[in-house]
Amino acid sequence: MNVNRKAGEKLVHELLEQLELNLDGSLDVYSSLKYPNVEDHQRLGEFFKNGFEALDPGVDPGSTDAIVNHVRGQHKREQVQAIVLAASSLMLCMDSTNRRKVGVDFCGGRGVVGITLAALFPEWDIVVLDLKPGALKLVQTRNESLKLKNIKTWQGDVSQFQVDFDLAVALHSCGIAADLVLQKALIQRAPFVIVPCCTGAVVPQSAALLRVAMNKAMISSKTNESSTTNGLKNELQNENLTKNSSQEVAKIPKIPVSMPRSILFQRILNESCFCELAQAADFGQGELDMTKEYCWRRAAKTLLELDRIYACIDQGYRTLLMKIRPLTASPKNDMLVGWPKECERFSKLEEQITVDTFVPSISSLAESSKWLDVSESHFAAAHLQLKQFCADPSVTQICIAQGLGSVARKAAHAAAESLELKHTSTGKGNRRSVLVEKQVMSPLEIRFRGYIGFFGSKIESIAKLALSKNVVPESALNQRLRLRGSEFHMTLCSSIDIKQYGKANEVLDRCRRQLSCAEITVLGIGCVEEKIGLSENKVYFVVVQCAAAQNLRLNLGLLPFDFHITLGFDVKDIHGVRKDRSTIFYSFL
Ligand SMILES: C[S@@+](CC[C@H](N)C(=O)[O-])C[C@H]1O[C@@H](n2cnc3c(N)ncnc32)[C@H](O)[C@@H]1O
User: Fold this and answer.
1) Same domain as 404, residue 350
2) Count of the separate structural domains present in the chain
3) What Gene3D superfamilies is this protein classified in (predicted)?
4) Which tens digit of pLDDT belongs to each residue from 64-75?
5) Is 214 in the pocket of ligand 1 (CB under 6 A)?
């Protein structure tokens, strides 16, 4: 894809900075779902444990005629398994006893996702939708041996589909088709799991085409002309699949379509910069490997998906940005999951979400050469092993990557670094390995994350105390969790301060020498707000004082700072405003 590298890289870094995603390892906006109740669901529990071996061999997406290559087949399995498991957690929240539910595999191709869902959930009707009759023919051929009664096909464009449904899934829906699927789900107030691909294809068609497609769909259903004119009516003639009546369609709210799509991104990005971003985000497997260019182009893809995520949040959706694991399953491995906030039946999912720190900060990746030749799959394996090590309180050190090559050892060092573990090389020859040790945390840790801040148990307990007052809305806490992870901090010197002073290492060293036993006085909980488009963005924080830190700033020639610990925000943090006593609405004094 032809992309102006310098401009693309600059744009990505500017955006990361504006969204504060480069300051504290924050491209780990990725979340995970602990799939609820899968063990209770017999078929699903087995699928969860044993993958496609638990199902009829005809369901396996890795062994169809279309897949001749073993590795490709394995990747397809991993992709399908990831999307199906995420979809399952939504499906398990919906009760199908009164009415059969309808799931649509949009851009379903030969139905790899749709067939798996139909096999796992016989109480659901699954529609595989695609533009290409040839692909849908393959769905029918595959089903000849499977004899699944609950699978249907629908041929045509996504925008033309006018059947009510309860769940939208789409694996590798190309460019604008992913936006059309999201639009369909938002209009239906249905939950969705979407893995978009080909972001460059978004560019030439742009918002105007998307609007035209949606309008056409509205008009065709208002005149009540069936869009299922391609000989496919028969497929969908099932009393449980009801077509939107013209009256119902008239009631459907028109959801504005623009590029960027979200209020947040519209504030910071015009349409032409958005197109640049989409081009930067378009890259294929192995094209770039772990080069610096890979890092900022991956960041561009994540930003693009974040815009989609925020557009759904604007429409009252609860959303997750997830990753297909292993990361090698596909270069297009961002998975968007969402459900309408007003639907209580999905509320149990809230407790199942964890913010994942699996993906290292893209900016730290891009800035630090030590990451550049780290293999993603070795990194993934080492990271998983070290996460288990961190979770086990009975061990304080572990040797990993023993007997493996230098690439695996480098990845092990990188994984340990990303988890802030101490790591050293040990052993000789084929006994070389990486010794990883847990660091003994002092109550007040001083760390560099682009800014310098206090971390550790003292900061965590101040935040916990403030949260126990229940005066900060849960949605604001969740938004912070999503963007920043679970750790709290108190900034001592911002990235701007460090730029002004010039020598980050010297500032860090002075902070560590002079502030490791500093006193912190908690004053109260403060709030500041701003308008973002039509909505309000409130930021909540603990207002604190630290005389030693203020003195150190003075000695460094820096201005006094309103020390605080951010607890939550509706959309994003606000900087450059006072966060002092005057903002306190809940006092501790
Ligand atoms: C990359 S393939 C993915 C197929 C399948 N989901 C899979 O993962 O194997 C994308 C599919 O989307 C279909 N497609 C693209 N744009 C579409 C649209 N606007 N409406 C319906 N199908 C579309 C294509 O025909 C193609 O089969």
Assistant:
1) no
2) 3
3) R3H-like domain (3.30.1370.50), Vaccinia Virus protein VP39 (3.40.50.150)
4) 655 556 777 888
5) no
